[in-house]
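Can't paste images in this forum, so I'm doing it all in text. The chain is below; anyone willing to post the predicted structure tokens underneath?
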Amino acid sequence: MILAGIDLAWTAKHPTGIAYGELKGDVLTVTDMSHGVLFPDSICEEIERRRVEGVAIDAPTIINNQTGMRECEKAIGRAFGQKKASCMPSNLEKYPNHPAVELSQKLETQRFQHLTTDKKFQVECYPHPAIINLFGLPERLKYKKKKGMKVADQVHGQRRLGWLLRSLENSPVLCLKIANYVQVEHFKFDREHNLVGSEVKAHEDKLDAIVCLYVAALHKIGHTTTFGSPGDGYIVVPKQQEYISTRNLAESDEWEMAPWAVETAHKYYLAAIQTYPICGNVSMTNAALAAEIILKSYLLRPSKNLGALNQRYSRPKVSGDSHNLSNLLDMLPAEIQGKLVSSFEREMLYKYRNYFKDGRYVYETNAPSGYSQTLHLIAQNMIRRTVKIYLELGSEDPWIVNFN
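Text version of the structure:
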């Protein structure tokens, strides 16, 4: 099921952030993002083109009150006011032609019904209380620009929210996966301090869009509470429960140690180092293969000679290109990704994702030109970190124990 989370701009001059994702069972994968000045018509066209079936919108989609606050906003204030997450008032006097109302009405013509779950649906959400309930926070997370707030404090809040969102990959309620492509192209996770100017607001919009997307998925699987009603306006909020797992690597059953594969990756790394003076492209190809094997080592399953030094493994089933380094990284559990690569290395794995496939035949027309030792360094670091993980988990494999 394709879903969308929309952080809608309240004026035509500001950009809107939209996160797209695919819900399969209890796993939600963020597959794409868009960010720019968008209007209700263009948003609806894009939603239809992508075959979206559920939408969560951060903006007042139903406004019938002439003045004051909507009843749902008052209810949110009563529930979350002490946690500094009350709503701003929405009314016809203040917003006679709110773009969210127009968007919602246009979505209705596309058969997106309010609050339903068995058909195309749309819901209104509000990130602040959603974040509080998702992560059990004592009060509103400060990541949005407020009067008198320092940019450094805003960026710090965004960094924390980025970490919290990625921690949802281990959620016992709804696993959230953010595709490596999305992380590299649209975010600066763990490097938020590099954001400047309009990038800070854009990053905020995209984070909000992911929160909205997650709320849309939670609504679909029945884990939201509704404040208000479709007649006078409503806001859905995640139910209060445990969304974050404290599981660690030792408790994970998603992977098993494969020391022989790690040793093999190291041999290709050594071959990359030794061939660099002879041919840079051949050297980089070996480094790419070393990186590929170390990533795949976390996906292998023992199949023969169990417990022996020459234990054999069944090859992983990889959807898409099995040589794509970025794709392979996506398949690893979040706790492994966090230990295995830095944010820079994540970007480089995306940049050189197809090097093994495209770089082997340097004489072909579309072969990559030039070379560097970036992949060598990444492969080396991933091998060293993997050995460290194995040792922490008590591996007694001789090669692992004696690795230097």
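The chain has 15 helices and eleven strands. The first strand starts at residue 2 and ends at 7.
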